[in-house]
Automatic annotation (TrEMBL):
<feature type="domain" description="Pentraxin (PTX)">
    <location>
        <begin position="21"/>
        <end position="223"/>
    </location>
</feature>
<keyword id="KW-0964">Secreted</keyword>
<comment type="subunit">
    <text>Homopentamer. Pentaxin (or pentraxin) have a discoid arrangement of 5 non-covalently bound subunits.</text>
</comment>
<keyword id="KW-1015">Disulfide bond</keyword>
<keyword id="KW-0479">Metal-binding</keyword>
<comment type="similarity">
    <text>Belongs to the pentraxin family.</text>
</comment>
<keyword id="KW-0732">Signal</keyword>
<dbReference type="InterPro" id="IPR001759">
    <property type="entry name" value="PTX_dom"/>
</dbReference>
<feature type="signal peptide">
    <location>
        <begin position="1"/>
        <end position="15"/>
    </location>
</feature>
<protein>
    <recommendedName>
        <fullName>Pentraxin family member</fullName>
    </recommendedName>
</protein>
<keyword id="KW-0106">Calcium</keyword>
<dbReference type="GO" id="GO:0046872">
    <property type="term" value="F:metal ion binding"/>
</dbReference>
<dbReference type="InterPro" id="IPR013320">
    <property type="entry name" value="ConA-like_dom_sf"/>
</dbReference>
<dbReference type="InterPro" id="IPR051005">
    <property type="entry name" value="Pentraxin_domain"/>
</dbReference>
<dbReference type="Pfam" id="PF00354">
    <property type="entry name" value="Pentaxin"/>
</dbReference>
<dbReference type="GO" id="GO:0005576">
    <property type="term" value="C:extracellular region"/>
</dbReference>
Length: 225
């Protein structure tokens, strides 16, 4: 299969606006220097939904999505602990542990996470199946300037990367909204049906910066005979 490869070996570069439909980011090695940074003009969030698809064989902890502000390194974090088959969802440095999902290695998974500041509740959906709704934080918004990173966990604002928390594998179809998607909308995303693209981050018009060894490739799909 012919692959479209874009290998960017830069520590810093200008943001690129690109249609990544049918593409994926590949993070091919364990490192604390490779990541994708996602600039956004929106800097105040009373609610958040993030959806993405990921594929990995990691057995150790790793970050899937990291949003930090100067006041909270884990202002919105999706984090996986495969050893316990457990997701951690963070908002404003408060954490909820979400268990009972059927998370498998070497499988494309659809992952969506939500939070809103009014109820303070967070929830995670794996392959269209919801977790319990759990309290994270309420009463205040996520206020920027925000730094959003794929491939690393920000332990400090824009940095503090730990190689043993890095993501190794593939990611695709990232969208982010400044509101909580309904269960039907999340199911449409999971099933790859028509859904409203993210109004904060949109995979088909994504503004991004790559640092280190991250590739853009054609998304791999199973052949149907």
């Amino acid at each position: 299969m012919a692959l479209l490869l874009l290998l960017v070996l830069l520590t810093a570069c200008d943001a690129i606006l690109q249609d990544l439909s049918s593409k994926m980011f590949t993070f091919p090695q364990e490192t604390n220097t490779a990541y994708v940074r996602l600039p956004t003009t929106r800097q105040d969030f009373s609610a958040v939904t993030v959806c993405l698809r990921s594929f990995t064989d990691l057995k150790r902890d790793h970050a899937l999505f990291s949003l930090a502000t100067s006041s909270a390194a884990n202002d919105f974090l999706i984090y996986m602990k495969p050893e316990n088959n457990e997701f951690h969802l963070n908002s404003k440095d408060n954490q909820a542990k979400l268990t009972g999902h059927d998370y498998k290695m070497n499988t494309w998974h659809s992952i969506c996470a939500t939070w809103d500041s009014v109820s303070g509740l967070g929830q995670l959906w794996l392959d269209g199946k919801p977790s319990s709704r759990k309290f994270l934080s309420s009463g205040s918004n996520i206020n920027g300037p925000v730094i959003i990173v794929l491939g690393q966990d920000q332990d400090t604002y824009g940095g503090g990367f730990d190689i043993k928390q890095s993501f190794v594998g593939m990611m695709s179809d990232l969208h982010m909204w400044n509101y909580v998607l309904s269960p039907c909308e999340i199911q449409n995303y999971n099933d790859e049906h028509n859904f409203t693209p993210g109004n904060v981050l949109n995979w088909s018009t994504l503004n991004f910066q790559i640092a280190g060894r991250v590739l853009i490739e054609e998304k791999q799909k199973s052949c149907i005979f």
